[in-house]
Amino acid sequence: MAPVARAPPVAVTPRRRVACAGTRARDSSDAVGDVARRACLLFAPSVAAALGRRAAFADEASVKIVRDVAGFGAKEATSKSLVLVKYEGTLASDGAVFDTTLGGRVYATSSSGVGSVSIAPAAARPVVVNLSSDAPVPGVPEGLRLGIRGMRVGGTRTFEVPPELGFGSAAARSPYATIPANSALKYEVTLLRLSDTGPDALYAGISRCGLGGASQMSDGCASVEPME
Question: Which of 69, 72, 121, 202 has its Cα between 20 and 30 A from that of 227?
Fold first, then answer.
């Protein structure tokens, strides 16, 4: 396969099914709320509606890669891959951060009432993303999956996502900001691990960092390095 940076943009049709899993109530002292927040946006119903409305326009939409630093991995990420990544998502219009795994920011909470934010900043924590379009999860738009496909472990990619492949024509609330309707997005992603066999392979050799309950350790998450 030719490097993605030289390939033409890929047009896709987002699926309409929306799964909302892994959510749980959390208080402001929960150090792992940044994991659950990606599993379900606070306004998930609006995301589901947006997915349905934008389907007619998806065949004209594409992800635009603006910067691509090649990784050292032997395999490219495909639609069948699970990946461990760190990323930051911003609004293309003004650069406002709406989602990040890099930590250091307070985030919106759903258990303390509308407008409430965490007391402590979120910890840095890489997240697992399933690149298949067959089971979309609110908070992980199709454009993010598309932008990661073709990357190799150790690579960093910056790409722009049009509204049709982002959160569509309805406003959505994310951990760090409200995403206005019809917003173009920008992501910068580093691919840390890649697996075609399951999530356990993504955490091989990683200590003091993982997906788990409220008592899980996150001390080692910031130091996770790319490895194949």
Answer: 121
- Report CA dihedral (106, 108, 110, 113) to the nearest 10 degrees: 100
Would residue 10 count as lying in a domain? Answer: no
In a domain, 14, yes or no: no
We report the CATH number of the domain holding residue 156 as: 3.10.50.40
Q: Is 211 within a domain?
A: no
Give the closest residue to 20 by CA, choosing from 37, 3, 2, 1: 37
Number of domains present in the structure of the chain: 1
Which of 185, 180, 22 is CA-nearest to residue 99?
Answer: 185
Q: Is 86 part of any domain?
A: yes
With a cut of 50, which residues of the chain have pLDDT below it? 1-59, 111-113, 214-215
Find the farthest-apart pair of alpha carbons in the chain and give their distance in angstroms, rounded: 49
Which of 223, 225, 142 has its CA nearest to residue 191? 225
Provide the residue range defining the domain that includes 179.
25-199
Structure tokens at 103: 């930590």
- Tokens 């406003």 label which residue? 171
For 187, list phi and psi in degrees, rounded to 5. -120, 145
- How far is C-alpha 128 from the geometric centre of its chain's CA atoms? 8
Provide the H-helix boundaries in the chain. Answer: 33-39, 44-54, 142-148
d(CA 83, CA 138): 17
Q: DSSP E strands: which ranges in 101-177?
A: 127-130, 156-161, 172-173
